[in-house]
Design a protein that fits this description.
The complex is a heterodimer. By secondary structure, chain A is of the alpha/beta class. Chain A is built from 10 helices and 13 strands. Helices cover 32% and strands 16% of the residues of chain A. In chain A, helix 2 crosses helix 4. The chains are: A alpha/beta, B alpha/beta.
Chain lengths: 249, 348
């Protein structure tokens, strides 16, 4: 019998070999899909599809993970002058806020890269994020996603942790939508059961399909401190902030 | 992280200390490992004497041969120690240099978009680097060059941008040379695209990876700019550990893009400039000029640089087991060009 971990690993491996045909290498990690979420042919089409979602049309800040596959969406969001909230790679330096108004015309694609983000975005505390009000839309890439919205990342649980932190400070709720941007080859056409801490998504957006997941059964997250014990991840700025208590601004 | 601590030495020998087996929960070999590391790191750089014999180290640390060997093996695996059968155990100076400098460098480094402050994975930009840029811009070799080689180090991103804005062509390897090299043409690029093109994330959007034949068709570069983990006052360059820069230099020579007189300029923070005498190996592409925020240093003795590819001197495996490099490998193996010095300025 396959444990959830086994089947996750199996799907990841199989999909990574398919993905290699349409993916773009990372500037640092080359083709090592265990270290980054790859961009792929058609990710700009995903960005256009996201533009038509109600949760995007609501306006306000969009949270976008620092994946290569969500870069086209960041460029589009910047071009539209919308604020972006993101994390640094591996959450190492916590959250960054990008005021798209500070990006000069013609520099949207630069600002949308991870190298460029460092130029244009500024670090923000959970206190600042909390003061900024609710988020309607969170967008993440993935290694794979099942048709019922169970998402696999690189295997480090970064997005689960981001969801947990945003939940803890009360800027996401039951109305918040989560979108997963993937290539068609990353969609697993069967219903998989997630684990307790998984964060199922509302929408699967590929270059060719917009798949709505009916009642993904997502709960608000909480930081599971016991899982972080001894991990360098426990020392990232937002978790240190959360540990001592986020101050109201 | 590696600690930079000085062990108090008594009588010139290794420190006398007995390790505690109890109460720490740390495996004994691990304590020996830490103590050996401290010992090795506290000896001045350039001191190439072998470690004390095993029997003496066993007595010093009060441990069995098995425990000592386990610690030694681990340090060999970390590449800090090297065993030469019949001669003894030696410190790998290049690893020691890296460990020493990494500890200082994190204090002045600017984070990478992926590796953050883990400077063992990349050559970081650093505080005060802007003062290096101005010095490089004033160099005639740079100012007059139509084509320049600039390593894919974060500390050189601003100079890549500067070169593009001045209409130069910039030859830049992909990170770790994994996908070969590209050439960015500042004369044919929209000014608005240049900031992105100067980054590692952006460069491949504006240029295709060059084949070896493409490389040979380029004009020689006017100057070679590189960052480093460390550089000695003699110009010996220490990169991230896999010899990428040495390989890049060898490649430039192999393809006729650099001559023995092409200047290699290393741009580093002052904490990366070492006042020690470490002998270069045959594949070391030594710097002709070292630029720091506090000023430039010209190495007193000009050391010769390798004239082409000598594969046996590069470590196999790791980063450059790519199609690009295997092409190169088969080419140099079949033609023996690798070891044949070519006349200065020879073109094909």
């Amino acid at each position: 019998m396959n444990t959830p971990q086994d089947s996750t690993a199996l799907h990841r491996e199989r999909i990574w070999s398919e993905l290699a045909k349409v993916a773009r290498p990372d500037s640092r990690f080359h083709w090592d899909f265990s270290s980054f979420i790859a961009d792929f042919e058609g990710s700009d089409e995903c960005a256009r599809r996201i533009r038509s979602l109600d949760s995007y049309q609501l306006g306000g800040t969009v949270f976008i993970t620092p994946d290569n596959s969500t870069e086209a969406l960041r460029a589009q969001t910047i071009a539209e002058g919308r604020p972006i909230l993101m994390t640094t790679y591996g959450i190492a330096r916590g959250f960054l806020a990008l005021d798209s108004g500070t990006v000069q015309a013609g520099q949207e694609f630069y600002a949308a890269t991870l190298d460029g983000m460092d130029r244009y975005a500024r670090p923000v505390t959970l206190a600042h994020i909390s003061a900024g009000g609710p988020l309607h839309l969170l967008v993440t890439g993935g290694s794979a996603v099942s048709i019922n919205g169970v998402r696999f990342g690189k295997g480090h649980g970064f997005f689960d942790l981001e969801w947990a932190m945003l939940s803890e400070i009360g800027v996401v709720d039951a109305r918040t939508e989560i979108v997963c941007v993937v290539h068609d080859c990353q969609v697993v056409d069967e219903a998989l059961s997630g684990e307790d801490h998984d964060v199922p998504v509302d929408w699967i957006i590929t270059p060719n399909r917009s798949i709505h997941v009916d009642s993904p059964g997502r709960r608000l997250g909480r930081v599971r401190w016991e899982m972080l014990e001894g991990s360098p991840l426990a020392e990232v700025p937002p978790l240190r902030e959360l540990k001592v208590g986020v101050q109201a601004l | 992280m590696h600690r930079l601590s000085v062990v108090s030495e008594t009588g010139g020998g290794p420190p006398k200390r007995r390790l505690s087996r109890l109460g720490t929960g740390v495996p004994l070999y691990r304590e020996v490992y830490d103590s050996l590391e401290e010992l090795v790191m506290s000896v001045p750089l350039g001191d190439e004497a072998p470690l004390a014999p095993e029997s003496q180290l066993m007595a010093t640390f009060g441990v069995s041969r098995g425990t000592l060997r386990r610690a030694l093996d681990e340090l060999v695996r970390q590449d800090l120690l090297r065993v030469e059968p019949g001669r003894g155990t030696f410190v790998v100076q290049s690893t020691k240099v890296r460990w020493l400098v990494w500890d200082r460098l994190v204090e002045v480094a600017r984070p990478d978009s992926r590796f953050d402050m883990d400077v063992s994975h990349f050559v970081p930009d650093f505080e005060g680097r802007e003062r290096c840029d101005a010095q490089v811009q004033a160099l005639p070799d740079y100012a007059q060059a139509e084509i320049v080689f600039i390593a894919p180090d974060n500390s050189l991103e601003a100079l890549r941008l500067d070169a593009l804005r001045k209409g130069k062509r910039v030859v830049v390897p992909t990170f770790g040379l994994r996908r070969g090299l590209v050439v960015l043409d500042g004369a044919r690029m929209d000014t608005a695209d240049m900031p992105l093109a100067a980054t590692l994330d952006g460069m491949e959007r504006f240029a295709a990876v060059l084949t070896l034949d493409d490389l040979r068709r380029l004009d020689p570069v006017g100057v070679v700019l590189t960052g480093a983990v460390a550089v000695t006052r003699q110009g010996l360059h220490f990169g991230g550990g896999d010899g990428y820069f040495d390989l890049e230099w060898a490649l430039l020579r192999h393809c006729g893009l650099a001559s023995p007189t092409t200047a290699v300029v290393a741009v580093v923070h002052s904490c990366q400039l070492l006042d020690v005498d470490v002998r270069p190996g045959p594949h070391d592409a030594v710097a002709d000029l070292i630029v720091t925020p506090e000023g430039a240093v010209t190495p007193v003795t000009a050391l010769p640089k390798p004239d082409g590819l000598r594969w046996e001197e590069f470590r196999s495996g790791t980063g450059y087991s790519t199609a690009y490099i295997s092409d190169l490998l088969s080419e140099t193996a079949s033609t023996k060009l690798a070891t044949v010095p070519r006349p200065t300025g020879a073109r094909r």
